[in-house]
Amino acid sequence: MREESFKQAENKLGLIFFPAFDWEIAPAHPERRERLLYTRDQIFEEGILDDPAINEYNPEIASRNQVESTHICAPSCEDIVSRPHLISAGGAIRAARLVEEKTVERAFALIRPPGHHAFRVVHGARGFCTVNNEAIMVDELLRDHPDLKIAFVDTDAHHADGTQEIFYHNPQVLHISIHQDGRTLFPGSGFAREAGGPGAYGRTLNVPLPPGTGDKNILFVLENLVKPILEEFNPDLIINAAGQDNHFSDPITNMNVTARGYGRINEIIEPDLAVLQGGYAIESALPYVNLSVILAMAGLDYSRVKEPELNSSNIGGEGEISDKVKKKVNVLQDIWQSRRDIIMGDEFQLKDDHYYREKNLHYDTDNIRERQEERVKACSRCSGFIDIKSQAKSSFPSRQIRALILPHDCCNECKMEARERWLKIKEQETAEYDFIAWQDKARGEYKTTS
């Protein structure tokens, strides 16, 4: 398609590459060092960077403080976060800065390791993710711009459970995850009933889709559900968590989306930022899907992008699948329209002025089991501080931590109550935990008793 390439791009686009050629989980693992090799070759072969409106920028290196302003790392940040993880997070931050400073209109961070399965508390890697690059990026933006409204549209085939959890109580962040039904794919979550915490109900929308969904149906979801919701929410910034594993050739999913389908997805969303997440067909999908996303973000024609394995038998999504998708869209439209009438879903119980829930988490990559108790202060002035007890079990002895987390919008009363609790826990309960953590998101402050 090179002869079509340019017409100059309509949108000034920044590309941030960090392929992490020196990092992998294992040589034969889907998340291996050559994962973005063919993508980079394709971009050079197509002459994408010959367009003066499309430019490449180097990533930053995220600081330990930036990681710890999003995550509670156990046993410590140094023990579980590698330099490639810091550069991946820094690549996302650089993309956001380029847009924030108006150096470019849009930016795409083609980075690895991925991050959207990393939760607030991190005991190790799950879903190939250790730290959440896009969440670290957004927390950094919210520190600089406390009133910013942000929308995520996650188009990875796997439910974005980590990003969802980190922003589950934040009414400023709308998180929409479009993914293969969790009954058929890791992480086994992402159902319509997961709609946001108390004070942020309806700010989380999960769209679980049946295997074989295909272009037609995923585009139906975007055009009839996601786009109208984005228009009503009216965010200051739209982020596409751009997982590429919905592609029909991906070895671990079954969604049947094409490269051109991905181009249309981005044309509908009109993201300011895209951050690469999953996608494991490194030769047959990633070069073409990423090319299509780049062209769509730049405002260029992606209609001639065609992957070598594309034929009519690849594309499904008719009949019964279409009916299921339409019913799911109707359910989610109802959740969105009723969001102001519901205080919280059935995940939480109200006990002693706190919303309470228990979670059991599995770190599939590192084979860790975590049991977590989460309490959120019920407050009419802010989203309430969070008190977490976490116990993790694996080959190491059982590890127990406690964490107090102050959200970006934390009111003075909640700050005072959280501070009193922090001092009391340190005085009376230190022996029960490996460490106790204090995290103030607005100030970027993190400290522990260890």
Short account of what is shown:
Belongs to the histone deacetylase family. With 450 residues, this protein is α/β, with parallel strands linked by helices.
Describe the structure.
- The protein has 450 residues and is of the alpha/beta class.
- The protein has helices spanning 37-45, 64-68, 77-80, 83-100, 133-144, 161-166, 214-233, 259-269, 286-298, 320-337, 412-428; strands at 13-18, 54-57, 72-73, 106-111, 121-122, 150-154, 173-180, 204-209, 237-242, 273-276, 349-351, 354-363, 368-377, 386-393, 399-406, 435-440, 445-448.
- It has two domains: 2-340, Histone deacetylase domain (Arginase, Chain A, 3-Layer(aba) Sandwich), CATH 3.40.800.20; 349-448, no CATH class.
- 30% of the residues lie in helices and 22% in strands.
Structural class: alpha/beta
Number of domains: 2
Shape: globular
The biggest beta sheet is recorded as: 8 strands, parallel
Distance linking N and C termini: 57 Å
- The secondary-structure element order is EHEHEHHEEHEHEEHEHEHHEEEEEHEE
What is the average of the pLDDT values? Answer: 94
Biggest sheet strand order reads 2-1-4-10-9-6-7-8
- What would you report as the Rg, rounded to the nearest angstrom? 21 Å
Question: What is the β-strand count?
Answer: 17
Number of helices: 11
The CATH C-level name of the largest domain is: Alpha Beta
Helix share, percent = 25-40%
Which tags fit this structure?
disordered N terminus, seven-stranded mixed beta sheet, 17 strands, His_deacetylse_dom_sf, 22% strand, 11 helices, 2 domains, eight-stranded parallel beta sheet, 450 residues, histone deacetylase activity, His_deacetylse_dom, alpha/beta, Arginase, Chain A
